[in-house]
Amino acid sequence: MKNILGRKVGMTSVFTDDGRYVPVTVIEAGPCTVVERRTKEKHGYEAVALGFGSLAKSRVTRALAGHFKKQGAEPARFVREFRTDIDGAQAGQTVTVAEFAPGDRVDVVGVSKGHGFSGGIKRHNFSGGGASHGSMIHRQPASNGDTNAGRTTKGSRRPGHYGVDRTTLQNLEVVRADADRNLLLVRGPVPGPKNALVIVRKSVKAPKAAAEAK
Amino acid sequence: MNVIDALNRDQLKDGVPQFRTGDTVKVYSKVVEGGKERVQMFEGVVVVRKGGGAGASITVRRVAHGVGVEKTFLVHSPRVERIEVGKRGIVRRSRLYYLSEKIGKAARIREKKAAK
After folding, report:
1. Cα separation of B105 and B29, whole Å?
2. Chain B residue with minimal CA distance to A23?
3. What are the per-10-residue average pLDDT scores of chain A (214 residues)?
4. In this predicted model, what pLDDT tens digit does every residue of B105-114 receive, in sequence order?
């Protein structure tokens, strides 16, 4: 099962075995416990809930404690469900980065960095106006479209709150999986700030790409 | 200890000799040619040293068949087998970009005599 929860540690670069020097994001992933196995018969859909991180005793309510106990698992700080690549998973089972190997393709889900209330340049990659030569339009959004319409077009790009969105990056390459240190090295950036929760799951697109290559 | 620092430290090679720009070095690097791997030597003057840590690189310049050739190597790359230091040069700057404009005698570098 190539699904795991982790914490984003940060970025660096590493040498691969074939001598490439690649940028990677370091994710401290697992060990996770399968906290619950959701089944079609009982819950209406198939899923596996993974737990990650320890939870202080004082923060475990009786109800939570009972739920975890029933499944034979320790209370976990983060619990997330996975609906793909879950064959053969059982409650109580442990998932580590040993499931992953270099070259695997994964999707990584995170909550993107918060940028607060941002203008069009940062938020929508607008070009902005001239800086000098009498230009009085610097970072303003300028024209917003048709004035004859008498209303604002739906979905027009304006300044506003930016960031803190659930963001998925697909088809990332696993560069290294270090089972001793519970580290997963994924090529390229990963959404979210450092220390944030990151969901790693088997890539949805990679199997298709591999099949087409054949 | 910081995980990323530890990862970076793991990648540093032991036994990288001390050298500076202006020194003449031989770089032995692995190249794949026709499906086979062999070690290729490149000898020349170190023109620049860039960066620190695992990403540190050097640019080596030599004049081959009348054409100036500059190659950049990642010092800690597993593809670079070893680096041998030859002549020590006396230079007054850290980046010898001016060498590419000089030809023949003007492109020479004074040599440091080994101390007895």
Report:
1. 29
2. B55
3. 90 88 91 87 89 84 85 85 82 85 91 95 91 91 80 88 94 90 93 93 78 65
4. 777 777 777 6
CB contacts of B7 in chain A (<8 Å) are: 12, 14, 26, 183
Measured between beta carbons, the chain B residues lying within 8 angstroms of A17 are: 78
The residue written with tokens 């591999």 in the block is: A210
Closest CA to A202 of A176, A171, A178: A171
Domains and CATH numbers, chain A: 3-116+161-213 (2.40.30.10), 117-160 (no CATH)
3-state SS assignment for residue A18: coil
Q: What 8-state DSSP symbol labels residue B10?
A: H
Q: Is B7 close to A10, i.e. CB distance below 8 A?
A: no
> Do the Cβ atoms of A85 and A202 come closer than 8 Å?
yes
Q: Which has the closest alpha carbon to A97: A9, A209, A208, A214? A: A9
d(CA A202, CA B96): 49
| B13 half-sphere exposure, CB direction, 13 A CA radius | 18
Task: Tell me the two tokens of residue A153.
Answer: 């077009």
Closest CA to B91 of B18, B19, B20, B27: B20
Cα dist from A83 to A38, A78, A185, A213, whole Å: 9, 17, 23, 26
What's the pLDDT score for residue B1?
Answer: 58
Task: Using CB atoms, pick whichever of B7, B55, B77 lies closest to residue A26.
Answer: B7
Instruction: Domains for chain B: give ranges and CATH numbers.
Output: 20-100 (2.30.30.790)
Is B9 part of the contact surface with chain A (CB cutoff 8 Å)? no
Q: What is the three-class DSSP state of A102? A: coil
